[in-house]
Amino acid sequence: MALRPIRDAGLGIATDLDGSLQGHTIESRPTGTAMSATTTPPPNTPSPAGTTPAKASTTTDAVIHEVFPLGNQWPTLDPFLFVAHHRDAYPAGTGAMGPDAPLDGREIGADFADIDGWNMYHGSAVPGFPQHPHRGFETITYVRHGLIDHADSLGAAARFGHGDMQWVTAGNGIVHSEMFPLLNRDEANPLELFQIWLNLPAADKGAAPAFTMYWSDVLPMIEHTDANGAGTSVRVIVGALGEHAPPAPPPDSWAARNSDVAIWHVCLDGNAIWQLPAAEEGDTQRVVYAFEGDHVSIDHERLDAGNGARVDATRQLTLVGGPGGAELLVMQGRPIAEPVARYGPFVMNTRAEIAQAFDDYRATGFGGWPWTVDDPVHGTDPKRFARRPDGRTDGPPVEL
To answer: What segment(s) does the record annotate as region Disordered (predicted)?
Structure first.
């Protein structure tokens, strides 16, 4: 297959590989603790919601230090680069696993307008993100509802969803696709997922690329009932929470070091009370994203749904769900504290390294694309599976 234009999954940025970096913006982010939505939007596109804090606390005793609205891409703190929350109300599917609905009015190839509550993204027949390269960071994809078909330049393939998590270490360079097959032909195909970009330190940006699957049954689920009988559930996606630990992260990840990296999905029933423990390290940075429900009280400070907050990670915090409950994504980690230079799907430390990434991709294709099409999907059987680069195949012990 020929090299395709680079498309930044989750952002919709296209870059002509035959062109030059000249005239384009390479984002450079200094080290520090300020929230940053590290995105480079396409020309004439407004900055994504969430890039400007709505409130910054001036009270030294406050546990909420900064509040910001959420959009499709959420602001992050070092060591994280990016969070995309995809929520699409896809209709019934066709025999070709695309939407059984007209595509009139959509910009096919770059459909992010959320017409009728769903998007084709960069897909033309099946929604999703056809082959595109990455270098210098990792993608963590947690799927709450629906299915994703993965394929990559290592020869790996997977169909995952229903609470599964996939971890891709781009390292020195990988090409992958993420397509959203609509398998239900007689009913809707809702999809909800989070894709999180975790930076790699300079010493590991040249690591060998890797593909890892974590089926939902190996991600611990904590169930807590408070003294009033209200419930809280916590899915431990990355990083131990007390005695509950998911499988180890990939060996070259920042999360594999003494980094206190964690990602937890917290669901509070109405008025439920739950204690969020203090971070293990004094320099850990923590963000709470309230993406669904009513509101949450964090040590008596209110955070409305649709907002995120940078919070004090050194204290145990009492979380209380509003009357309508709340769903939260908690993300934390010790900062890498290195300069960040980013252009589309490449994240390095300097502008020169970004230019080198483009040169390397033009020259090598990061190993080439072993698939006959840019947007592989893996048939109409809903069974989840992962085929590793060495040919080994496995799946979840229990199919949902």
So the answer is: 20-55, 380-400
